[in-house]
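Course assignment 3, question 2. Fill in each field.
Student: A.L.
Task: Predict the tertiary structure for the chain below.
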Amino acid sequence: MYDSMKSLTEEQKNTVHELACGLLSETGMLFALEEARDIFKANGFKIENGRVFITEGQVDNALKTVPAEFDVIAPDMNKKIRIGGNNRVWTPSCSCTKIQDLDGTVRPSTRHDYEKFLRLMQGIDTITCCFEFVVPLDVPQEKHLLFNLYMQMLTIDKTLSCQQVEAIPMLAMFYNTTSDKMCRSARDGLAYGVSPVNPLSPLAMSTYETEKLINFSRCGIAPAIAPYAMCGMTSPCTLEGLIVQQCAEILGGIVLSQLVSEGAPVLYGCLGSITNMSNMFVPVGAPEARIIEHASADMARYYKIPSRSLTGMTDANETDYQSGMESMLNFLVTARSGINFLTGIGSYSNWMIASYEKLILDSESVEYVMRLLRPLDFTDDRAAVDIIQSVITGGSFIEEEHTLEHYRNEFLTSGIFEREPYDKYVSGGKSGVHDKVVKRIDKLLHDYKRPYVEDSTKKQITKYCESHGYGEFIKNIFD
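Answer field:
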């Protein structure tokens, strides 16, 4: 297929792999957590001054045991997700500390915003897995991701997001299982979540992130190993240098994950950007970030490992033309690159501000992207030569049975974006995109039904959440 956006050649992928392995074997990777170094040492790895030296052979052995695809459980098993292969999972954005209300006001995000987001997410078919979306700043921050998981458990029945080690026992309670069984299940193809693990560029992993990697690998939660290097700041200025460095950082994490639990699922992170040298700002909407994602996705396929990236990113400080342009570019590049786990729906301003409006707009944009990527299929029915021959010159296909059978599935319709002439738009009171978004949100909230959770399970997880200091914050949250 002709495509001006070139993928890496086999020779280039081999080069990236060889250079990355050279970095790991000659320079090594710093693991701040002593437990990690002990695991490496017990398996015969060379360690000096906290740096672990990993040979190409040791990398190759680890790669052999990483699954190419796996499922992730959901409270409603009809909504479990498949990660890897040609599958795409779209999730909301993460870690936003501000929220934009529908009147345009931007303010600090709260636990009530997170609960409202979850109710909206439950009704948005495009989003099939949860993620953090906003940081509720009105709860204690040390373990707010545990609080978020508790909220998910009682609000949605789609795949949950466990991103904090302390939350693992609560996840086991919810699914009435144990961490050992979760680990075995993940190795057999059914994981209990996906969580980002972020190496520290260049060539290091902090104590906190290494603890996550080890514990998630032990407990059936797939770590998405995703450094976010910045060209010219935490990696070489060239995109090629960043791609090689990040490959090494990811491979180092993969090796540790397989030493902890051979066969544990893991994802290859396809992130990274440039540095604005005039102000040290790291733009997520830059075209260079899209090139990094595209090349990294090639490396993930080279290793036959599922991939994860941010998507829908923009540096715009309003939901304006720049926001839509950069977000759609990101949606399109990550989707056509074959990235499997796509995080980012609903945020702007360098993913610092979450927006109810953009949550809806982005979800609609993803529908456009998925329609664009649907392959053609020239079966007799779809090529419809007999229908063409049956309609006389100058005739119309509008009343043909074939048209009635196909148009609903063939044509993507949008209840948000404009699809009508200007005169009708004016006569209809100039109800624009924002008005339609407000109506969509009202309908989603009105139609929301809370999934059933057994009382005994609810009591268990509530007691656990209270034991970590969140009792007063979960009281009456669902009233």
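Instructor remarks: The CA atoms of residues 15 and 244 lie 9 Å apart. Residues 380-410 form one domain.
Grade: pending
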